From TrEMBL:
PROSITE patterns: ADH_SHORT (PS00061)
Database matches in Pfam families: adh_short_C2
Higher taxonomy: Bacteria, Bacillati, Bacillota, Bacilli, Bacillales
Entry-linked SUPFAM superfamilies: NAD(P)-binding Rossmann-fold domains
Homology family: Belongs to the short-chain dehydrogenases/reductases (SDR) family.
Residue intervals of the Ketoreductase domain: 11-191
Name recorded for this polypeptide: 3-oxoacyl-ACP reductase FabG
InterPro entries per UniProt: KR_dom (IPR057326), NAD(P)-bd_dom_sf (IPR036291), Sc_DH/Rdtase_CS (IPR020904), SDR_fam (IPR002347)
Length: 255
């Protein structure tokens, strides 16, 4: 009975930025747990290739859509296409994200806007777009990919830290607004995970050493180590959790 809580049979999950890194790992995991999935990318070929790979390996239905999640009209079309294809959207994972590392005095306005639009504006647009569908279903799971840097800071991450901190606050507001509709909204806050986004840090000996020294477990996390958390947050197992932030960081923020 307890394991039944983690099954996603009959559910439909939409994962932005779901063609690589943590996004792809999460999309694959949700499909393995029984969900049909939609994955997005700015590039149509990448989205469709990722969807085919997930469908072939899991036997679940999968759809790849090209969308710029910072553009409201494209986000609305993405949701409409998803509902047309699968009839519903039960799970939204706002995963698409970007990081630009610069001292604040060197941060040009275009780079600042790019980070804020991708990491904070896009989740707002996507959540707003799925609201009508989830409210009519009286069911939904919205999971915002924040970061441990949404609550702690590192130098040269001014845009990233502020966007991820803002996303945690947006999560709390949506949780309060949508609780009457049986829609939960939570934030998943990974720490140092060995993904493409962090390659520049891992390839810098001094920066890599700083990270390893601050991770209690003494190593970078593996992308698959996020699977347990995302299945929990997307499933009935987390039905009494909303407005929360779950940190998976190897113990960094425990210091």
């Amino acid at each position: 009975m307890s394991l039944e809580l983690f099954k996603l049979d009959g559910r439909v999950a939409l994962i932005t930025g779901g063609t690589r890194g943590l996004g792809y790992v999460m999309a694959q995991a949700l499909a393995e747990a029984g969900a049909d999935v939609i994955v997005t990318s700015r590039e149509k070929e990448k989205a469709e290739a990722a969807a085919r790979a997930i469908a072939e390996s899991t036997g679940r239905r999968a759809l790849g859509l090209a969308v710029d999640v910072t553009v409201a009209e494209q986000v609305e079309a993405m949701v409409a296409d998803s509902v047309q294809a699968f009839g519903r959207i039960d799970i939204l994972i706002n995963n698409a994200g970007i990081n630009v590392r610069k001292p604040i005095e060197d941060f040009d306005e275009a780079s600042w806007d790019l980070v804020q639009n991708t990491n904070l504006k896009a989740p707002y647009l996507c959540a707003r777009a799925v609201a009508k569908t989830m409210k009519s279903q009286r069911y939904g799971r919205v999971i915002n990919l924040s970061s441990m840097l949404g609550s702690i800071a590192l130098p040269e991450r001014g845009a990233y830290c502020s966007s991820k901190g803002g996303l945690i606050q947006l999560t709390k507001v949506l949780a309060l607004e949508w609780a009457p509709y049986n829609i939960t909204v939570n934030a998943l806050c990974p720490g140092p995970i060995a993904t493409e986004l962090n390659t520049v840090v891992m390839n810098n000996p001094e920066a890599n050493r700083f990270f390893i020294e601050n991770i209690a477990l003494g190593r970078w996390g593996r992308p698959e180590e996020i699977i347990g958390a995302i299945i929990y947050m997307a499933s009935e197992a987390s039905s009494f959790m909303t407005g929360a932030s779950m940190v998976v960081d190897g113990g960094w923020t425990a210091r």
